[in-house]
Each structure stands twice: as structure tokens, then as C-alpha cells.
């Protein structure tokens, strides 16, 4: 990725844009002395658990769509951040993983969507359980600045950020 | 039938507003066609050979008169005066201007319709038995569950970017009119010994270039578990379905490559974790949705029995139509009427604006305000009193809608083919028209009896050729359009994929080849009661191949 594109990356969450303390690196060594690092899954799994837990830096993990989250499950309470990748907007595997991590396994760290994040998927991502989105797409950035999320007034299925709609059991209303 | 409440209205209205904005941005050049593509697909807008095409969802194929009238109005105002009913019980408009599509969606929203989930890799519009709710052989109406699935799958956050499109079909009768075994999920609503409602669940059926019959993975799923079990299936598919090759991305391939037993195990394990979640359907909600579909209180009309007998005696054309196009209703004073959209030599599934309006008027007066679209590309009036049949027939006759060929050889399914479709190898519609003309004589059709011909212009199989008793597939060989013939396919409760007979036929030869097949059948059937399919299953392909290729194989 070119330096110019790198610069345009912005981190966004329900409250708006925020600073990103993390850097992405292939290994801890390659990360220099950055206080917060995201490692690829294989590198993360290769770390000694004690080293990782006693480290004074935050060490998050990036998971590609084809990679399995099972090895992470028993360590969830020690992971500060999981970044699920969207190499293309239409590769939807990370939605199911988000749902499993947040909904089933109670992951309480930061769940981040990275990759091809477009405006039309923002609401899906939030509802599936993502806390933050790393955005580079120009239209998405503009719309998020204007808080124009392409949301609907109600939803037909359970999801985060919503409450029972007082109607059929599967319906939900957004909570402010 | 289901009526939108405020929640539904607000939801659809919001989507239309969003799409208006997107179309504006496309027209102004802010969005390129490439950026616009995923957005338009979310709203049922395809780019075809010559123009944009809009596919409108007809959930489980059920329409009110008011909705049908609106479809006619749209055909007249924004298209060339007709629409095309499809094998997925939807309607397509082939020539709308992009700038008009937001207005069309506004008009549709007025009558509680939309074009969502009619394209894209999401859970598509749910289809159902077109005789649902009225068929004499039905255990329970499957449409309330179609409606629950429609709602739950609408803009589903987890399941809007599946490996490939995902189709669900439901039926509530032993005799399967909804082709559930060639769907990604097929649901057969039935009762267990205790009299409770549940589903037999089939997974992994489909056509396209690798036709497969679905596998039953659960014999009885209580209805309250519908959404949790469906979620389990779709989640396993979303996580593990192939994405490296779009032809292998359907759940049928996952079933095939993983093995039915192992995949069932994964689905059941996922379901155990979901079973008692928010997705469990309260009986009250099921009952509330079901109440929308409660059959209207039908007046007793016993006078129809005698009236019908007398009218049949007096009018041979009417008698033939009743025998072919009217099927038994739950209420013996009523019948279920199939309106054929297959006039001899016509385009299968096309209806003009005037025809749509006429059908709407008839349904309002004579069929409790309800119309169905069948996957065989016909329309259905679900509840017509026997006493009114003659009147209905006379009205249908006024606009070419009383063709007495439901289920016969001229009741052909055909995809749009090379006349409209960018993927086609060959024309489908003209072949259907020529076969229809060749066999059009009433006596000849009736002598041949039930015979389903289905035609696709390429291996994507939109015309269901794999499950035609006789299937015709357009292929391209050295720049020439050829038609490959398959025999013995069927999409009912005993679903089979047809077998290829041999080398393909040119456009000039193909109708003769069909005639040879039909004549061979007539020559070998055990009696007039043995249908083409039954005879084929008894004797196999050999006599048909002999008839088609015999001379060639002897010469070789
Ligand atoms: C003219 C534009 C059309 C195009 C470009 C198109 C394209 C396709 C493609 C690519 C597939 C295969 C999907 C797969 O890999 O599974 C497919 C399947 C299908 N299409 Fe179409 N289609 C068109 C029109 C229609 C129409 C008008 C109908 C209804 C009459 C239809 C009904 C179907 C059905 C039922 C299938 C599913 C077959 C299966 O079970 O695999 N399509 N279509
Ligand atoms: S079967 Fe092929 S030719 Fe026919 S509509 Fe589908 S994609 Fe087009």
C-alpha cells in the first residue's frame, strides 16, 4: 500500500472518528517500540503466552477471512483487539466471525473491521458486532463525516445497537 | 395475505430514498457503473444485453388485485406495455430507464412491494407452492413461514454477502409444486404424530452447471425453531462455502465436498448454540403472522356443481379448459384456476398491462382479491366458486388468457435467452414458440398428456432444463447455436436431474427432435394413463436415443 493511501486510513466508531494507537506489523520485532501492535494470526499464535500477557504493549491480532478463530477462543479475555479483514467488500465471512466473537463468546476487546469498508456495509458491520472500522474509501469517509450511515428506521433481526421493537420477536429498533 | 404495518412501510420507504440518492449520484457521474453495481443489485436492478432490467419481488408468489393492477400500470407507464413473470415467482421489467426506477420503486411501495433481495449474494425472495392455502392436498399453509423468512432475511447484517445467492422454498403439501429439492434450502411443512407442525429440511439442491438434488438433513424441525435452524445452516455456509470459484460457491457444492453427514453435524452443533436464543419463534408471533393468511370465509356455493356440469356440456372449449386448468380446492364448491401465460406461439411468462389489469379485476370480483404467480410462469386464481367458473372463463377469453394447456406440452418454461441475456449461448424464446406451434392443436396436446418442457439458453439453468421431463439447453459449438436435450428430469417430490441424450441439435432440427421423442413415447406407453415421465422411468433412455440418433449410430 502506498504511503499516500496509508495516510488516508481513518478509524471510525459509533461515536465518530478517533485516533488509532495501533500499528500493523508482521512481528513484534518489526514493530519497533510502538505501544500497540496488530500481528497476523500466525505470528500472534506463535507468541509465548507469558511473553504476550506480561508485555507492556497491547498486542492485537488480525484474522483473514479464510482463517479460523477457534484457536483464539480460549484466550479472548487477554486479547485487546481483533481485526477481522474484508479483502473485498463482498467477502462476508468476517460478519459471521464478528457475530460469534461478540454474540456467542462475549469478546469484550475492540473488534475492528479492516479492508474494503464501504458506506453501504457500515450498518451491517456495527450490527454484527464491530466496534471500529478502518476506512479509506473516499465516499465512505465523506458520508461518515456527515453521519449519513444509510441506516433503516428498524431492523428485521437481532443485532448489536438495537432493542426489541415491541412487535414481532425478530424485529428491533436502533437504540440511540 | 400479509399486510405491511408501519414498521414495514418505514423500512421500505427508507430504502427507496437511499436508492434515489444513489441513482442521482450515478446519473450525475459521481458514481461509476462499477461503484453503482453493488448498490443497484441490492435493489433488483440488473444490466442486461440492451438495457437495465428491474426484478420486483413477489413474496411466495402472492399478489392482491391492487398490487397486480400496479404491476400493469408500471408496465404501461415505464416499460413497453408488458412484464415478464419468472420461474422464481417474480416479475421482471426489461426496459425501464434508470432515471425512472426510483419512481417505480415509489409506486411499488404504495402497494407494499419492493425489489429488495431479488439479486445479489443474499437470501433471495422466498418462493412457495403457488396453490398454498387452498390446495386440497395441503397439510398447512406454508406462506406464513415464507413471510417470517422474508422479514428476517431482509438486509440481514450477517448474511448479505454470502458466497453466492441463496434460495429458499417452502411447501405444505406432500405433492411438491414448489420444487423444494432444487433449492439451497427446501422446507416441507408437515405434522408429526402429535399433530404439531414442523419442517422436513432439505439442503443443497440446485441447478446451474452442477445440478444436484437436495439432501434431507432433518426429518422434523419444530416450527418455532425455523429461524435458529436457518441461521445455523446459512452461517455454516457463509463461513465455509467456497469463494474461489463462483460456480462452486453454492451450498450444494459445500454439501457435496464436505459430505452430508459431516455438514449436518456442523449445522446441528451450530444450532444447539442458537436454539434457545432470541431467534426462537414465540407461538404468538407465528399465530399473528398466520392470521394474515387465514383463508377468507368462503360462502357456500353448492349451486356451482350443477351449473358447472351444464356449462361444460354446452361449451366444449370451456370443458377442456376446466379439465386442464382447474384443480381441486379445499372447499368443494370452489376450484383453483391456472391462468396460462403460454398462448400457443407466445412468449412464456409475458403478460401485457391490459392482461394484468384484467386478471386483477377478475380476482377482485371472483377470487377473494388474490392472485398467485407460479414458478411455471403462469398466474393462479386461488379461490373461484365453481358457479363462477364460466364467467371467469369468458372474461379470460377476451384477452387471450384462457389457453387450456396447464401442465401440457405447450406449457413451456423458457428463460429470456439470447433475446435479452448477455450470458446466453442460444435463443430460448423462439424455440419455445416453435414447439408450442408444432404441438398446439388441442387434441394432440391432450393425447400426449402431462409433459413439462423447460428451456435454458445457457448452463446457468434459469429455465430449469435439468428438471424438465424434456429439457433443452442452448450450447455453443464452434460459433453455432446448438440445443442439447435431456430427458427424465423432474422437480416434484421425486426430484431427478434429466439425462443428456447425446449430441445437440441445430435450431432447425430441434423441434423435429422433440417430435421424435414425443412420438416414441406415444408408441411405447403402456396406456394413456402412463405419463411421459412414468414411461421414461420404466423404459429408460435407450428407445429415445435410438429414435434420435439411431440412423446415425447404425451408419457409423
Ligand atoms: C436475463 C438476465 C439473467 C441473467 C444474467 C441470469 C443469470 C443467472 C446466473 C448467472 C445463474 C446461475 C447462478 C449460479 O451460479 O447458481 C442463474 C440462475 C438462475 N436464474 Fe437467472 N438470469 C437471468 C434471468 C433469469 C430469469 C428471467 C429467470 C426466471 C425466469 C431466472 C431464474 C433463475 C433461476 C431459477 C436460477 C437458479 C437455477 C439454480 O437453481 O441454480 N433468471 N441466473
Ligand atoms: S439460463 Fe443463461 S441464457 Fe437463460 S437467462 Fe439464465 S443466464 Fe441467461
Automatic annotation (TrEMBL), chain A:
- Kindly name one Pfam family recorded for this protein: DUF934
- Tell me the domain of life: Bacteria
- List the InterPro entries: UCP030820
Instruction: For the region Disordered, give the residue spans.
Output: 152-176
Specify the protein name. Uncharacterized protein (DUF934 family)
**Whose protein is this, by species?**
Phyllobacterium leguminum
Automatic annotation (TrEMBL), chain B:
Gene3D superfamilies to which the protein is assigned, alphabetical: Sulfite Reductase Hemoprotein, domain 1, Sulfite Reductase Hemoprotein,Domain 2
Query: What are the entry keywords?
Result: 4Fe-4S, Heme, Iron, Iron-sulfur, Metal-binding, Oxidoreductase
User: What region holds the Nitrite/Sulfite reductase ferredoxin-like domain?
Assistant: 52-111, 345-396
Residue ranges of domain Nitrite/sulphite reductase 4Fe-4S in the record: 119-272, 412-548
A Pfam family that this protein carries is NIR_SIR_ferr
- Gene Ontology molecular function terms on file: 4 iron, 4 sulfur cluster binding; heme binding; metal ion binding; oxidoreductase activity
Transmembrane stretches, start-end: none
- PANTHER family from the xrefs? BLR3264 PROTEIN (PTHR32439:SF9), FERREDOXIN--NITRITE REDUCTASE, CHLOROPLASTIC (PTHR32439)
By what name is this protein known? Sulfite reductase (NADPH) hemoprotein beta-component
> To which species is this protein native?
Phyllobacterium leguminum
Amino acid at each position: 500500500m502506498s504511503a499516500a493511501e496509508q495516510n488516508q486510513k481513518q478509524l471510525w466508531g459509533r461515536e465518530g472518528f478517533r485516533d488509532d494507537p495501533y500499528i500493523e506489523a508482521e512481528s513484534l520485532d518489526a514493530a519497533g517500540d510502538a505501544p500497540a501492535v496488530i500481528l497476523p494470526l500466525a505470528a500472534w499464535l506463535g507468541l509465548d503466552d507469558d511473553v504476550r500477557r506480561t508485555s507492556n504493549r497491547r498486542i492485537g491480532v488480525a484474522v483473514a477471512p479464510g482463517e479460523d478463530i477457534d484457536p483464539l477462543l480460549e484466550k479472548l479475555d487477554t486479547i485487546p483487539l481483533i481485526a477481522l479483514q474484508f479483502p473485498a467488500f463482498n467477502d462476508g465471512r468476517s460478519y459471521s466471525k464478528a457475530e460469534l466473537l461478540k454474540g456467542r463468546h462475549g469478546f469484550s476487546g475492540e473488534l475492528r473491521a479492516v479492508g474494503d469498508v464501504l458506506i453501504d456495509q457500515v450498518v451491517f458491520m456495527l450490527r454484527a458486532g464491530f466496534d471500529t472500522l478502518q476506512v479509506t474509501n473516499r465516499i465512505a469517509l465523506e458520508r461518515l463525516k456527515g453521519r449519513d450511515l444509510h441506516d433503516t428506521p428498524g431492523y428485521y433481526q437481532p443485532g448489536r445497537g438495537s432493542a426489541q421493537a415491541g412487535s414481532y420477536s425478530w424485529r428491533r429498533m436502533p437504540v440511540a | 395475505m400479509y399486510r405491511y404495518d408501519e414498521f414495514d412501510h418505514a423500512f421500505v420507504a427508507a430504502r427507496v430514498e437511499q436508492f434515489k440518492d444513489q441513482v442521482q449520484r450515478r446519473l450525475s457521474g459521481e458514481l461509476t457503473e462499477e461503484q453503482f453495481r453493488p448498490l443497484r443489485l441490492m435493489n433488483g436492478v440488473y444490466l442486461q444485453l440492451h438495457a437495465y432490467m428491474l426484478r420486483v419481488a413477489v413474496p411466495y408468489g402472492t399478489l392482491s388485485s391492487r398490487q397486480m393492477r400496479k404491476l400493469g400500470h408500471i408496465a404501461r407507464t415505464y416499460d413497453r406495455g408488458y412484464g415478464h413473470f419468472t420461474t422464481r415467482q417474480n416479475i421482471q421489467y426489461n426496459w425501464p430507464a434508470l432515471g425512472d426506477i426510483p419512481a417505480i420503486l415509489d409506486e411499488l411501495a404504495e402497494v407494499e412491494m419492493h425489489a429488495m433481495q431479488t439479486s445479489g449474494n443474499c437470501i433471495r425472495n422466498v418462493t412457495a407452492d403457488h396453490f398454498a392455502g387452498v390446495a386440497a392436498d395441503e397439510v398447512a399453509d406454508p406462506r406464513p413461514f415464507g413471510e417470517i423468512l422474508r422479514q428476517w432475511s431482509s438486509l440481514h447484517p450477517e448474511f448479505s454477502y454470502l458466497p453466492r445467492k441463496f434460495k429458499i422454498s417452502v411447501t405444505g403439501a406432500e405433492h411438491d409444486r414448489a420444487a423444494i429439492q432444487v433449492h439451497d434450502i427446501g422446507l416441507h411443512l408437515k405434522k408429526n404424530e402429535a399433530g404439531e407442525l414442523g419442517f422436513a429440511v432439505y439442503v443443497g439442491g440446485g441447478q446451474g452447471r452442477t445440478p444436484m438434488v437436495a439432501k434431507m438433513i432433518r426429518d422434523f424441525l419444530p416450527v418455532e425453531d425455523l429461524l435458529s435452524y436457518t441461521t445455523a445452516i446459512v452461517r455454516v455456509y457463509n463461513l465455509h462455502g467456497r469463494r474461489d470459484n463462483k460456480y462452486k460457491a453454492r451450498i450444494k457444492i459445500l454439501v457435496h465436498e464436505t459430505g452430508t453427514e459431516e455438514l449436518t453435524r456442523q449445522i446441528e452443533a451450530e444450532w444447539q448454540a442458537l436454539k434457545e436464543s432470541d431467534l426462537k419463534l414465540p407461538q404468538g408471533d407465528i399465530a399473528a403472522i398466520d392470521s394474515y393468511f387465514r383463508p377468507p370465509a368462503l360462502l357456500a356455493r353448492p349451486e356451482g356443481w350443477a351449473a358447472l356440469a351444464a356449462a361444460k356440456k354446452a361449451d366444449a372449449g370451456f370443458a377442456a379448459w376446466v379439465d386442464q386448468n382447474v384443480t381441486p380446492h379445499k372447499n368443494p364448491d370452489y376450484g383453483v384456476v391456472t391462468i396460462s401465460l403460454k398462448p400457443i406461439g407466445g412468449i412464456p411468462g409475458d403478460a401485457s398491462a391490459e392482461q394484468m389489469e384484467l386478471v386483477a379485476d377478475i380476482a377482485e370480483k371472483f377470487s377473494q382479491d388474490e392472485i398467485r404467480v407460479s414458478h411455471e410462469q403462469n398466474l393462479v386464481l386461488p379461490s373461484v366458486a365453481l358457479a363462477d367458473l364460466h364467467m371467469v372463463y369468458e372474461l379470460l377469453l377476451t384477452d387471450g388468457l384462457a389457453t387450456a394447456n396447464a401442465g401440457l406440452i405447450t406449457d413451456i418454461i423458457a428463460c429470456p435467452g439470447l433475446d435479452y441475456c448477455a450470458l446466453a449461448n442460444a435463443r430460448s424464446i423462439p424455440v419455445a414458440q416453435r414447439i408450442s406451434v408444432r404441438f398446439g392443436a388441442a387434441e394432440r396436446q391432450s393425447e400426449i398428456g402431462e409433459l413439462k418442457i423447460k428451456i435454458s439458453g445457457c448452463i446457468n439453468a434459469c429455465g430449469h432444463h435439468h428438471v424438465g421431463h424434456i429439457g433443452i439447453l442452448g450450447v455453443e459449438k464452434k460459433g453455432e447455436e446448438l440445443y442439447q436435450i435431456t430427458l427424465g428430469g423432474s422437480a416434484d417430490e421425486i426430484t431427478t436431474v434429466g439425462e443428456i441424450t447425446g449430441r445437440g441439435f441445430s435450431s432447425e432440427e430441434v423441434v423435429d427432435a422433440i417430435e421424435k421423442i414425443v412420438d416414441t413415447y406415444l408408441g411405447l406407453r403402456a396406456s394413456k394413463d402412463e405419463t411421459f415421465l412414468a414411461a421414461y422411468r420404466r423404459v429408460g433412455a435407450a428407445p429415445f436415443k435410438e429414435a434420435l440418433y439411431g440412423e446415425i449410430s447404425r451408419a457409423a
